[in-house]
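dude i think i finally got it to work??
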Amino acid sequence: MRKRGYPLSEQLMDALEERGYRDTAPRRTVARAIAEKERHFAAEELREQLPGIGRATVYRSLKILVEAGALCRVLLEDGNLHYQLSHRGHHHHLLCVECGASEDLMGCDIEDRLESVADAHNFQVSGHWLEVYGKCQTCRAELPASA
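look at this
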C-alpha cells in the first residue's frame, strides 16, 4: 500500500476515489486518522477519535478500504474485529495474545488445502480468513526461564 514520497492518507483517498467515492472533508479526516495508526485498531476507537465525523462515514470508509485492499480485517482472539493497513495482497495474520502485535503471514499454502477439501465435498469456496494466535518472539523472550 505505501508508496515512497506519497502520503499514506492520499493513497487511502485514492483507493476510495478509485471505487467511485467523492473526495470529501470527512473522508479525508478518516483517511488521515487511519494513516496515523501504527497498529491495528477497532472501528469504534476510530469513531471516538473523530467525534465530528458521522458513524456511517467511518464504517463505510473502512468497508470500502477493505474491499479496495488498502485495509485488512484482523479478528482478535477475544472476538473483537480490528483493522490495519494492508501492505500486500491476500494474506493471513500471526497475532500475539500478550502484546497485541500483528504480523502478516505470507506464503501460506492453505489455499491449496482448501481447494482440495472443497473439491472433495463438491463445494465452491468464495473466500476464507485465517488468524493464528500465540506469542511473539519478544513476549516469549520475556517469559521466566521456568515457564
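Residues 88-147 form a domain with the Dna Ligase; domain 1 fold (CATH 3.30.1490.190).
im so relieved honestly
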